[in-house]
Amino acid sequence: MNMDDVIERPTLDVRHLPPIAFDAKSTLWWGNLLGLFIETAMFGILIAIYVTVAMNTDPFPPIRSDRLPVIRDSVPDMFLPTIGLIVLLVSLIPGIWLDISARKRDVGAIKIALPLTLAFNVAAFFIRYYEFDSLHFKWNDNAYGSITWMLLGMHMLHIIVLGIEDIYLIVWTFAKGIDDKHALDLTVTAVYWYWIVGMWLLLFPIIYLTPRLI
Asked: Architecture of 27-213 per CATH?
């Protein structure tokens, strides 16, 4: 094969295609989706461990007797976790607005919705930080304490990661505006936030309602 053969070989003309595509037409979207599948599988393993601990602990949750006050009915408190759940659900409003605004390249709306999503993210982080006390156990007290702290902690880690990403996108948006690439980044970030909220809708009843039902 010589250079002339290479030059004369038919090629596919893609000049009419847009440089950036959203959702399933984007490789970034698929990469993010596959990553979320992996993270979902990880939470599935943690939930399986939680169920195993519940099946082998009597009573469940266990009595807290190693320090005062002794707690015989040690089901987790609901007040702060319920507030956290409400905050996450309400956060979907600016999250969806940000998603739609990014697709429209509405820079003005993005500059409002993006800081709002970060504000909800920060609120969710601080609520989660104090939420650990609702469990009545430390991570190293027993198997129940370890797995519940792990479930809360891993979900909190995703909140932190998305918060860092929000900060980066805010700095970029206010410094350089929004191009097609970063508009796509915003839509993918929104999908990540939808997943965080959806995963908490699964974890919340497992952690806080299951101990009251078994």
From this structure: Up-down Bundle (1.20)
